[in-house]
């Protein structure tokens, strides 16, 4: 029994030790994205209650947020900013309570607002981690990670507008997010730290944004059901591609630690 306990403690110790600042910024940035992805899929469950995919993504995203928070809570390298992680935890508790309620427009509107508060708290935590890292590549992880969030906030605002949830805020937010996503891509493309692989993935992200914008601009003459598939499918491509880029930037920081 004593040997087993020592072995478990050793494994936990190794897990924390192997967790780098680059990894922490990457994972903390994912929490921003998940706040928007959960809200998006909650709304989509109301628009398309028969679609099993929305339910699966919703459930998996909640699980991911909780697992990520546990990892960040164990990271000793960020003890100086632990208070901000506690704020994120409190915002998450408020958010999750609403998210677990039956799907309705009233609950969706409340979750829409609460997602912005959770996002803000999570973003502040990412910035504090970036400051602890004290290296330019940490900013790149933050910005690339924010692109993941923007891909899902774009989809969230699109879904909210479609279902009549805070339509004015959703419309203005959608346009601002599309503009920011494009501007941030150009910022990343200008980075002297980029490898050829990173640049290649960034150009893919530009292509994804261009295709998604056609749907928002009404250029695609397709049914609402098909448009939802196109928009959510394309923003998911944007998410996956930016996730790869964020991990590539995290590797750059890890190699300098």
Automatic annotation (TrEMBL):
Pfam families: PilJ. It comes from the Bacteria. The keyword Kinase does not apply. Keywords: Membrane, Transmembrane, Transmembrane helix. One of its GO terms (cellular component) is membrane. The keyword Membrane applies. InterPro entries: NarX-like_N. It is found in: Membrane. Residues 22-108, 134-192 form the NarX-like N-terminal domain. It is a multi-pass membrane protein. This is Type IV pili methyl-accepting chemotaxis transducer N-terminal domain-containing protein. It comes from Microbulbifer okhotskensis. The lineage of its organism: Bacteria, Pseudomonadati, Pseudomonadota, Gammaproteobacteria, Cellvibrionales.
């Amino acid at each position: 029994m004593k040997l087993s306990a020592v072995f478990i403690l050793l494994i936990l110790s190794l897990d924390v030790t192997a967790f780098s600042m680059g990894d922490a910024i990457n994972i903390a940035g994912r929490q921003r994205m998940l706040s928007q992805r959960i809200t998006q899929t909650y709304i989509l469950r109301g628009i398309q209650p028969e679609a099993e995919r929305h339910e699966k993504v919703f459930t998996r995203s909640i699980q991911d947020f909780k697992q990520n928070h546990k990892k960040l809570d164990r990271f000793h390298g960020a003890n100086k900013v632990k208070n901000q992680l506690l704020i994120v935890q409190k915002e998450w508790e408020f958010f999750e309570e609403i998210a677990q309620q039956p799907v309705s427009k009233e609950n969706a509107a409340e979750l829409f607002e609460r997602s912005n508060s959770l996002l803000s708290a999570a973003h502040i935590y990412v910035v504090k981690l970036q400051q602890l890292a004290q290296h330019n590549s940490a900013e790149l992880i933050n910005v690339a990670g924010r692109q993941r969030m923007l891909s899902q906030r774009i989809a969230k605002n699109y879904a909210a507008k479609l279902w009549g949830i805070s339509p004015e805020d959703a419309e203005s937010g959608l346009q601002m997010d599309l503009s920011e996503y494009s501007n941030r891509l150009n910022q990343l493309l200008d980075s002297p730290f980029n490898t050829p692989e990173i640049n290649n993935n960034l150009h893919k992200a530009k292509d994804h944004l261009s295709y998604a914008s056609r749907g928002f601009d009404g250029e695609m003459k397709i049914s609402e059901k098909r448009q939802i598939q196109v928009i959510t499918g394309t923003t998911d491509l944007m998410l996956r591609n930016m996730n790869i880029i964020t991990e590539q930037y995290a590797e750059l920081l890890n190699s300098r630690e």
